[in-house]
Amino acid sequence: MTGYRQVLAVPGMASLLGVSLLARTAITADVMALTLYVVLGLELSYAAAGGVAAALTAGVAVGGPLLGRMIDSRGLRTVLLVTVLVQVAFWLSVPLLSYGFLLGASFVAGLLMVPAQAVTRQAIAAMTRAEQRRAAFALESVQGELSYIVGPAVVILGAATTSPEVVAWGVGAAIVAGGAGIALLNPPVRAEDEAAAGAAGRPPRRQWLSAGMIAALTMAFGTTTLLSGVDLAIVATLREAGQVSWAAVVVVVFGVSSVAGGLVYGGLTRPMPTWLLLGLLGLVTVPAGLARDWPWLCVAVVGTGLLTAPTLATVADAVSRLAPAGVRGEATGLQSSAQSAGFALGSPLVGVAIDLSVPASGFAAAGLAGLVAASAGYLLSRRSPTRTAAQVGEFGGTRGPDLEPHAAEAHPGR
Fold it and tell me: How far is CA 239 from CA 158, 170, 247, 292, 361, in A?
């Protein structure tokens, strides 16, 4: 736990993680809030609700690298204030919009969503030393898991006790409060020794979007494809068993396991390669389909959960080290887009497998997707050229260019 105490002792880190958790929890719940509003408020079909959710998700995927590039060139606070104002306008207008206008407005809201996750990752890379970074990204991944456990559940409870309009306003208010809080904190997105990176200009994309970076983005995509598929496979398995009401319990066990895995991994003295963690994640997911009722399914998803946060943490760490300081915003935006695309693809991919076979094949499809991404990441990372010292100094990159953690970084206090 010494590593976590050192991370939380970094000036501004604890407050950043707290405010970011508020924003990320609300952002995690925004799709659910809009779904319930379309179904309960507008009294339209679930297909119509899916259209709004897809529009919002597509906007987030497209907007990630654009917002990141704006942060690199215009500064963090300017981007946060613009996105906060857009979110205020969108969520206040949700109950006033017809379905057609809501569809278009959802895309714009996603395009200019408060980049809480990407900003947190950038700030972690800037505020921590190399030996602290793995523990810090583990905390960031645990934060993400907590948001997925809490956010949708609070929205569902709120819709059951109030109205979908009030829930939508509440989610919007939390997003705005979180974004405004991060803007107020204005955490650094470049370390002090990287300050010259902005003045030196942006390095050419062909230089930093290397095989190693593409490997990291591929594994980010594969990880969320797997996770999205697992969620659907859980529901399908329990529906076949006539126990769909227990799905929430299984999902909570899954999330708690991930939190535990992230905390344990962040405290280890030696890191593991990203491709290996993702490969193991895929391997333990495939046999989860053998479970036939909810108690055994709770046991089966523990292995997947324990490896989820560590895999996400190593992906974030890899992206932060591979990206020169002058383009780290764009790189973390690309990571967010890759993860959003994975979430969007995972459910349809697994859904096809379930429709063509049995619910157990959903876990197999999700696990195989992770294995394919891990294999691709391994092959690409082996092809990643090493940047020269001159290239590193010219563009302000202070991390090693390789995809995997350095052995020296595994030992706190170095």
Answer: 25, 31, 9, 10, 14
- Nearest CA to 58 out of 129, 101, 126, 109 is that of 109
Q: Is the pLDDT of residue 346 over 70?
A: yes
Q: How far is CA 199 from CA 196, 208, 325, 328, in A?
A: 5, 17, 11, 14
- Residue 336: is its pLDDT beyond 90? no
CB 28 within 8 A of CB 160: no
Q: What's this model's pTM, rounded to 2 decimal places? A: 0.77
Helix pair angle (294-322, 211-240), 10° resolution: 170
| Domains (range + CATH), the chain | 13-191 (1.20.1250.20), 204-414 (1.20.1250.20)
* Predicted confidence band of residue 252 (pLDDT cuts 50, 70, 90): confident
Quote the CA–CA distance of 409 and 248 in Å, as a whole number: 38
Cα–Cα distances in angstroms (integers) from residue 32 to residues 35, 50, 114, 159, 212, in the given order: 5, 10, 17, 10, 35
Whole-angstrom Cα distance, residue 243 to residue 347?
A: 20
- Structure-derived torsion over alpha carbons of residues 14, 15, 18, 23, reported in degrees to the nearest 10: -140
